[in-house]
Amino acid sequence: MVMLRTANPPTPVRFRPQPRPGGEIGRRKGLKIPRGVTLVPVRLRLRAFFLEVDVVMFFLCLKLLRSGCSQAFTRLTIWLAIIGIFLGVMTLNAVTSVMNGFQAEVQKKLFGIAQHVVVRYYLPVDKDDDLDFLQNQPHIQSVSPFLITAGVLKNQSQAVPAMLLGVDPSSVHYDQLLFDPQVIKQLKPGSFQMIPGYELSRSLYLNSGDRPFLLTASHSSSLLMDVNLKRLNYAQAVNFKVGKNLEEKLAFMHIDDLRAILNLDQKISGFNLQLDDLYEAPAVKKAISSHFSAKALVTDWTEQYAELFSALRLQKTALSVILALIVIIALFNLTTGQVMLVNDKRSAIAIMLTCGISKWQLTRLFLYQALIISAIGVVLGSISGYWLAENIGQWVRYFEDRFGLTLISNKVYLIDYLPSQFHLFDAMVIAGLTLALALIACIYPAYLARETHPASVLRYE
């Protein structure tokens, strides 16, 4: 018996379309394609963070950019774009770091000297009227009464207007305001001792043991102008850490002595409230405002220095916008260089279109070039900006010491040095916006490239 075996079914042959020839034409046009290599629309992609990077297109982008830089003027425009982006990003990082550091230092100084919440009566009232109410409120850590009045201090032939602040030494804390806060603790009731700011004492030519006169207006309800004249005792002055204008106007006294001079028995001008959390100041103010609505004005630190912080934010924004013009001008050079590259390599672009590159791939080709050029400037600018921000304070101090200049005065800026704080978030925002603007700047060159007609360009080739 003979068994017949059926033959194995033939394996189906998969025919692959022949690639379009393009190697010889590309070599004649200067694309530097090796022998035996034919342009085939191969798509090798790396997927990361939901972005597709076409490796072949990136390779062609580098080749086209390098061959385009053979022209002197095109190379000059591209280098100017890189240098402009580098300078713009470096300056923006340095300036934003300085503004961040300045704002942080000023905020730190103000938080040290500012009262969290201030209750200021329209007219002097008795101390015990609202003291219990304030002490029972949440978040209030300490309540310090004060009495303030304006007057004229006279010593020998010098007369200077001044503000007299009556305080209770046992309940005030001026560690962040004064270099030697223990001086305030020396105020004793009945001594009529005055502790002025250092600049105020210099204006009056005060020496230890002098007894200047204090002239103040009376708080009586009489229509006549009554004045009080009292001789005070002076032992020493006090230096302020911040706010040098306070040294020229402010003098401390014991609250009981100032009451005796003004004929105010147990009356005060208001309360200074210190909280356990200074960011609770708006909530505390809102909670107690209804109680004092008819007889006192309640303010917190956010209102007292709102103009200062608004000015700092506005200054930072204005400087950033002005310095961003450097980057924008550099992007104009980038656009010019890309347009010249398209015009110079129009034949190569036509050859790539005939080899199977789609118009969308050609558009990405020039967008990749924009990213490469801008990324070089952004990386160099970010590194240089960080280095500049870390050392700019020392450079300013060196120039001040070397040439005897005062570039930053604590009478104006509350600090006498240039602080700097580099924030990574700000650097990332600057880099991201620069790269986005670079992509926008290369939309027009990419549009010119994709509108190339291979037949009209290669007609006479």
List keywords for this structure.
alpha+beta, 2 domains, 10-stranded mixed beta sheet, 461 residues, 49% helix, two-stranded antiparallel ribbon, single chain
Order of helices and strands: HEEHHEHEEEHEEEHEHEHEHHHHHHHH
Question: In total, how many domains does the architecture comprise?
Answer: 2
Structural class: alpha+beta
Rg over CA atoms, rounded to whole Å, is 38 Å
Helix content: 40-55%
Mind describing the biggest β-sheet?
A: 10 strands, mixed
User: What is the tally of helical segments?
Assistant: 16
Quantity of strands, as a count: 12
The pLDDT mean sits at 77
Our measurement of the CA-to-CA distance between the termini, rounded to an integer number of angstroms, reads 74 Å
Q: Identify low-pLDDT runs.
A: 1-7, 9-29, 39-52
The gross shape turns out to be elongated
Approximate strand percentage: 15-25%
Task: Give a nutshell description of this structure.
This protein has helices spanning 23-28, 55-68, 72-113, 131-135, 198-203, 244-247, 255-262, 281-292, 301-304, 306-344, 346-354, 359-403, 410-413, 424-441, 443-450, 454-457; strands spanning 45-48, 51-54, 117-126, 140-155, 158-167, 193-196, 213-217, 227-231, 233-234, 250-254, 267-275, 296-300. It is an alpha+beta fold and 461 residues long.
Written description of the protein model:
With 461 residues, the protein is an alpha+beta fold. It has two domains: 23-36 and 46-107 and 309-457, no CATH class; 116-300, no CATH class. The protein contains 16 helices and twelve strands. The protein has helices at 23-28, 55-68, 72-113, 131-135, 198-203, 244-247, 255-262, 281-292, 301-304, 306-344, 346-354, 359-403, 410-413, 424-441, 443-450, 454-457, and strands at residues 45-48, 51-54, 117-126, 140-155, 158-167, 193-196, 213-217, 227-231, 233-234, 250-254, 267-275, 296-300. The strands form two sheets. Strands 3, 4, 5, 6, 7, 8, 9, 10, 11 and 12 form a ten-stranded mixed β-sheet that branches. A two-stranded antiparallel sheet has the order 1-2. Strand 4 and strand 5 (158-167) form a beta hairpin. Helix 3 packs antiparallel against helix 14 (424-441). The radius of gyration is 38 Å and the shape is elongated. The chain starts with 22 loop residues before the first helix and ends with a helix. The model is unreliable at 1-7, 9-29 and 39-52 (pLDDT under 50).
